[in-house]
């Protein structure tokens, strides 16, 4: 084995410092382009399965010379990690290995940095084999678990080096201001901590029981609670959700998750007719009033949904669009049902680090467990009723006993998951009776 092969096999990086120019040139022959993700989907990882990062695209910047921006932070366990990637529409994109290299280089030598240091440091890298130059801003800011070292790197084609050097001071001043604002935002941002633990547990439980959710708040940032609730939905359900729309459609009847803002006078009229029209029962989380309400569950909701659609078309036929009948009585009611699944999940999440996607992965595994319990419930009912040919005898009391489900809340969560897998199964369990009190009876 010659020296060149030995250097490649040991992943030795050659660093050549050009003292006169003050530019660090980093060789990366050990990183083969064969391992790069051609489509840029981040399917391959050079660090670990939890090294994913978010990505967004900036448009209408056709006259710029920056191709991408990279926000990274130093993880005490896994080392340099990418948090977010901004790409410029129409500009060149870079494979994962290049991004990882830039992340590593920008944070190299910062392990002993004082995390309480408020200074913003500047580094400049030249990576000849990738034909890019990288101005990087190093700073400390809060992350999950406390303060940490971060970097904001700009990826610029090396062909624009002369242009960059001409406007270097201007660009540095601009981005130092941007980084200063970013630090404040990161220090203030803590979406879940704004909501007490018990209320947060109730929000998750009600959303998993009712299949759809509307969050109401007077503050736009508070509505971002939906971003956390979306972790308990599938990818398909997230595509049929939205954070908040204050323009033309404050509420849509069949979105799984959505937010709405109260007016300046804190008045918000619940869209009862639209809620009853929806396919699934709905939970309304009012963060301003600190209340959680639910529409009629399962069998009642099916009847109300059918009546609402029929009344709407009947009124349209007769020209009475404003006289659509709404069922009398209290349609949206508060509930408080004991459960153990979500409570246990939150206790386990507290023991995990809130970074590197560990908690998100654990929630995904939890949802798989709930889905398996739902499949078990479906198979149990198929065996007990000869695939639906016979009525189910014993009711929910027998169901809970045989499947070792401890509380009514746990049963409702599992039944909601089963309803998604096999629509109509909840109606079959309940028998289509009147359950307007929204409590699961154990006297069947």
From TrEMBL:
Family matches, as InterPro entries: C9orf72
The protein's name: Uncharacterized protein
Source organism of the structure: Tegillarca granosa (Malaysian cockle)
Lineage summary: Eukaryota, Metazoa, Spiralia, Lophotrochozoa, Mollusca
């Amino acid at each position: 084995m010659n020296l060149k092969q030995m250097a490649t096999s040991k992943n030795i990086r050659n660093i050549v410092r050009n003292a006169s120019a003050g530019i660090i040139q980093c060789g990366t022959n050990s990183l083969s382009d064969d391992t790069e993700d051609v489509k840029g989907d981040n399917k391959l990882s050079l660090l670990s399965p939890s090294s994913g990062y978010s990505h967004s695209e900036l448009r209408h910047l056709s006259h710029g010379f920056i191709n991408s921006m990279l926000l990274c932070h130093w993880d005490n366990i896994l080392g340099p990690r990418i948090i977010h990637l901004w790409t410029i529409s129409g500009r060149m994109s870079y494979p994962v290995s290049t991004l990882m290299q830039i992340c590593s280089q920008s944070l190299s030598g910062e392990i002993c940095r004082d995390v309480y240091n408020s200074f913003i440091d500047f580094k400049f890298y030249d990576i000849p084999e990738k034909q890019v130059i990288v101005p990087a801003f190093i700073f400390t800011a809060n992350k999950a678990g406390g303060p940490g070292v971060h970097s904001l790197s700009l990826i610029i084609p090396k062909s624009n080096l002369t242009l960059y050097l001409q406007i270097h001071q201007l660009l540095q001043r601009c981005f130092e201001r941007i980084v200063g604002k970013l630090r404040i935002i990161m220090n203030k941002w803590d979406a879940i901590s704004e909501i007490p633990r018990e209320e947060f547990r109730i929000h998750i439980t009600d959303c998993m029981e009712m299949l759809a959710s509307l969050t109401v708040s007077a503050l736009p940032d508070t509505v971002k609670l939906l971003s956390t609730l979306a972790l308990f939905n599938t990818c398909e359900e997230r595509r049929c959700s939205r954070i908040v729309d204050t323009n033309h459609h404050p509420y849509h009847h069949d979105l799984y998750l959505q937010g709405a803002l109260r007016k300046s006078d804190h008045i918000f009229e619940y869209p009862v007719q639209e809620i009853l029209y929806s396919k699934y029962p709905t939970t309304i989380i009012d963060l301003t009033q600190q209340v959680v309400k639910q529409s009629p569950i399962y069998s009642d909701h099916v009847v109300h949904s059918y009546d609402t659609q029929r009344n709407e078309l009947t009124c349209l036929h007769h020209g009475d669009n404003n006289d659509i009948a709404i069922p009398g009585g209290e349609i949206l009611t508060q509930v408080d049902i004991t459960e153990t699944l979500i409570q246990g999940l939150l206790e386990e999440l507290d023991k995990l680090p809130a970074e590197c996607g560990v908690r998100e992965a654990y929630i995904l595994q939890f949802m798989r467990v709930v889905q398996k319990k739902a499949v078990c419930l479906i198979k149990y009912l198929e065996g007990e009723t000869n695939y639906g040919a016979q009525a189910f005898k014993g009711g929910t009391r027998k169901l809970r006993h045989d499947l070792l489900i401890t509380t009514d809340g746990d049963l409702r969560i599992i039944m909601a998951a089963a309803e998604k897998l096999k629509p109509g199964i909840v109606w079959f369990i309940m028998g289509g009776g009147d359950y307007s009190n929204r409590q699961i009876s154990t006297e069947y």
